[in-house]
User: What shape does this take?
Amino acid sequence: MRCKLCAEKGETQCATCTRLMPAGRKNECESCAWEKSLERRARIHVELFDNTSTRQHFNEFCLWLKDQMGAHKAALKLKLYLPFFSFLDAHPIGLPSYILLLEHFSAEGLRRMQTPMLWLNARYGVAADEQLRNEHSEKRRIQEMIESTPAGVGLEALLGYREYLRTKQGDGSTSISSVRLSLRAAKNVLASASQQFDTLPTQKTVTAYLTQSPGQRATAQGFIGYLNRTHGFSLTTELSERAVARAKNRKLEATLYSLYSTGGEGEAYERAWIKAALMLLHGLSSVNKKTFSYSAFVVQGVAGFNVVINAKTYWVPSSTSGACTEIIEFMTGE
Assistant: This one.
């Protein structure tokens, strides 16, 4: 479909650049119209800034932006970058360092300001620092962890442990990432004792938590040692292998029952089912559900799967077989 002018005249010259354009546009081609729109928006937005240096930097950025993405896209996106230049306007003595930008916008905020950061790097050599960004993100996560903890003796213990870890970080014996992981483990230990964080862990709660999450033993050990030193406790992270195995089996039973209850289908479901069944019924310590091969195989009238792992073959019942139903009924006591 064409308008009347395009149908009758076809093309005409743009009054600005003299290039041919559809006659229906009348006086100006689309490219020139967007360039004027960008210039108009730049003139309006630059009035937001008080300092001459900021106005100069903003005008430089507008020209750079047009070269990078064209006038059309630049005009549409320009407003998104105003907070960046408002910050520059608030710090008129030279361009801010990367750490100052990071402190103001945060790592997430600077990701949204990636385009002006590219300009700042290309024009003035202010480059992003990956290490500083990671450290800032870790500090933010730690602060969020602290702020989400209810007031009480649990929070006091967590704050004390944070100061202890900061001392270790200061002498170079641990990293900010390790501090966050250690604090996360400490908070989990405290939460296992009380969701209100109004009491400190006992040997019973520590044992129960580590039995359910034996993989957390190494990271939780530092906090347990801290509590022993500062509160005169004698808590231990030693676990009974039998108790850990029993807790692992209960988790696998719950996983199988959940899969059985949903009654899914397809390869992803079958692989999840086979993994849990292998670990529970054959005692395999770990199974990568993406790497084993399997095929349907019926044994004595019971539908199941032959599964090959490291050149060994195992058989497990399918989630729809009668044997599986008996296993689920036995586990749930139904």
Q: What stands out?
A: Residues 247-332 form one domain. Residues 52-77 form the longest helix (26 residues). The chain has three domains: 4-128, 134-231, 247-332. The chain has a mean pLDDT of 85.
